[in-house]
Design goal:
The chain is α/β, with parallel strands linked by helices. The protein has helices at residues 38-46, 52-64, 78-87, 152-156, 164-180, 200-210, 231-239, 255-261, 270-284, 302-311, 337-349, 370-381, and strands at 31-32, 92-93, 98-104, 110-116, 122-128, 135-137, 141-143, 158-161, 187-190, 223-227, 245-249, 288-294, 317-323, 354-356. The strands form 3 sheets. A 10-stranded mixed sheet has the order 3-4-5-6-9-10-11-12-13-14, covered by helices on one side. It has a two-stranded parallel ribbon with strand order 1-2. The longest helix is centred in the middle third of the chain and has 17 residues, at 164-180. The chain binds S-adenosyl-L-homocysteine and iron/sulfur cluster (SF4).
Length: 386
């Protein structure tokens, strides 16, 4: 079988950005405004002679109000308006993904969007509103290189990494959706398409911008990075003491079992993954969330539950059990409620907090990558359709 593991070359790194203490700007390189932190935006504007107050006004429009039609802001001070007329669309670009499709769930609690990026790649962004808490679930890559057999995104393969601005723009889209309903976005999960730790630098840059209290103001403790288990990324998070929640997708309790579901287990085996989690826990003192997708007849037995409990002993862990969403390449494996409940009981009895994630809004949300997969299927069936 063709391996879909990440290519050995260095991950895509964003174009160099103007830095606060290096305001020199190379005019040949277009800058994406959404991926400048506040100080970087101030430095960029200062290089063209604008004042810090202008940067504050522009930042507020971009990152707080989530506005995209900047030229329509007649209340902007004249120097800022002139700067936008001069620079926007030439040296300074905006990330404004188009909505390819919007599917609300029948319970009204989930809105799933397929967003089209400037190069035509499509990614999924979901806005969820359970129990008064609003959460955006965003993508970090177009496709994914990890090839997990049950995952619709993994079944598509890898297209490219997202730039920081493309990650930020998804959250701003969610913010606009909620603003329209008078609601505030408080939580962010990186559980859409892609593997966040395979795109480490761009993801960290985006999270730093999104946590700025002058902009989106999502607290770092309200942000969760979900990883398939990219060991060097987990160790780097620990080393850099990043203040975000970490969720690790486990799904298998032995090397063989996990490798059959997650090809990346060959590169970062389960024992190394658990060891990196221990190091992470010791260095940061943080709890780790472990995701376990329950797949009938594959990993949902009491013996599996006991092995998971043994594996996680001594870690500050919380286990999230996720019922499988069937995908085109992986069907007929939905776990029975009774098996989920027995599994849950065994983990809890071992002293590890455990939650069964409810399958709400399932008619729309389905799993990661499923909206795009469904669209591709329709397009193949009717290729002449728009
Ligand atoms: N790449 C990261 C984050 C994106 S996937 C990761 O793998 O953790 C987010 C979560 O959705 C993961 O826990 C993944 O295992 C789970 N997932 C993917 N496809 C699924 C499916 N068909 N049913 C249930 N969970 C699924
Ligand atoms: Fe990639 Fe996560 Fe899907 Fe695996 S589950 S293929 S890592 S997006």
């Amino acid at each position: 079988m063709k391996s879909r593991l990440p290519a050995p070359e260095a991950p895509y790194i964003a174009e160099p950005l103007a830095h606060a203490d290096q305001p020199v700007h190379d005019e040949r390189v277009p800058i994406y405004l959404h991926e400048l932190g506040f100080d970087e935006l101030r430095a960029r504007l200062a290089a063209d002679g604008l004042r810090p107050a202008h940067a504050a006004t522009l930042w507020n429009a971009l990152q707080y109000r989530a506005q995209t039609d900047l030229l329509a802001r007649e209340d902007f001070p004249p120097p800022l308006r002139r700067w936008l007329e001069w620079r926007l669309g030439v040296e300074c670009l905006l990330d404004m993904p188009e909505v390819s499709s919007h599917t609300p769930s029948s319970d009204g609690l989930t809105d799933k969007f397929l967003l089209r990026l400037q190069d035509g790649q499509e990614i999924e962004t979901v806005v969820m509103g359970y129990e008064g808490r609003h959460t955006a679930c965003v993508s970090t890559q177009a496709g994914c290189a990890m090839g997990c057999v049950f995952c619709a995104t993994g079944q598509m393969g890898f297209a490219r990494h997202l730039r920081p601005g493309e990650i930020v723009a998804q959250v701003l889209h969610a913010r606009r959706v909620l603003q329209g309903a008078g609601r505030r976005l408080r939580n962010l999960v990186l559980m859409g398409m892609g593997e966040p730790l395979h795109n480490y630098d761009n993801v960290m840059k985006a999270l730093q911008i999104l946590s700025d209290t002058r902009g989106c103001n999502i607290g770092p403790s309200k942000m969760s990075i979900s990883t398939v288990g990219v060991v060097p990324g987990i160790l780097r998070l620990a080393e850099e003491d990043r203040p975000y929640n970490l969720a690790v997708s486990l799904h298998g309790s032995t090397e063989e079992e996990r490798a059959a579901l997650i090809p990346a287990n060959q590169r970062w085996p389960l024992h190394e993954l658990v060891q990196s989690c221990r190091t992470y826990g010791e260095k940061t003192g943080r709890k780790i969330f472990f995701a376990w997708t329950l797949i009938a007849g594959v990993n949902d037995s009491p013996a599996h539950a006991r092995r998971v409990a043994a594996l996680l002993q001594g870690l500050r862990a919380h286990v999230n059990l996720i019922p499988l969403n069937e995908t085109a390449g992986y069907a007929g494996r939905e776990c029975a409620e009774s098996s989920a409940s027995v599994f849950h009981g065994i983990i809890q009895d071992a002293g590890i907090p455990c939650t069964i994630r409810q399958k709400r809004g399932i008619d729309v949300a389905a799993g990661c990558g499923q909206l795009k997969a469904a669209r591709r299927k329709r397009e193949r069936a009717a290729p002449q359709a728009a």
